[in-house]
């Protein structure tokens, strides 16, 4: 998993301080129509996966909140077939990774998980929701920063390069349909560990 130390300033405290709007988990439902636009207008397939990234805290109440999220996702797995697993990366961040070939189910599951953290009083522990896509040129992601209350595009090419032309193209098409981050300095790269892998792997 390739989130570098500066995530603490970009998706963390300073991002929250500099935010121009509050995060709203309802923003995540914008991805339902964005999936259609990405496919119909831009030729992307969805990657059948999405992920929710959060930071841990040494608290029994927080552990209970995480357990409740797992119970919600387990119920969703039985109802919709949306698989999930929890992953801890080498930087100490945690991920709920969801797998489903129905993008609507992915959006709903990510929203339920995020909303549970917020209702339990741990919205500040949420960092990002990440939705994956792919076309002939490679992967692209829409990242929702909970600290900024906005989405931004990320198109990695390998483990340390990004296709900014693709990112600007995604911004131009989806801005308005999604609440896109206007300050490009907050388009933080979530590098994968290896080419062809997702940032949450």
Helix-and-strand structural type: alpha+beta
Low-confidence stretches: 1-10, 12-17
Helix content: 25-40%
How many strands, which pairing sense, and closed or not: the largest β-sheet? 6 strands, antiparallel
**CATH architecture type:** 2-Layer Sandwich
Secondary-structure element order, N to C: HHEHEEHEEEH
Average pLDDT: 88
- Using only C-alpha atoms, the radius of gyration works out to 16 Å
Q: Report the principal-axis shape.
A: globular
User: What's the CATH topology label?
Assistant: Alpha-Beta Plaits
Annotation, overall tally of beta strands: 6
Tell me what the structure shows.
With 201 residues, the protein is an alpha+beta fold. It has a single domain (7-186), classed as Alpha-Beta Plaits, CATH 3.30.70. 36% of the residues lie in helices and 23% in strands. The chain contains five helices and six strands. It has helices at 7-18, 30-40, 60-80, 103-119, 164-174; strands spanning 45-55, 83-88, 93-99, 126-135, 138-145, 150-154. It has a six-stranded antiparallel β-sheet with strand order 2-3-1-4-5-6. A hairpin with a 4-residue loop joins strand 5 (138-145) and strand 6 (150-154). Helix 3 (60-80) runs antiparallel to helix 4. The protein is globular. The relative contact order is 0.22. Residues 1-10 and 12-17 have low confidence and may be disordered.
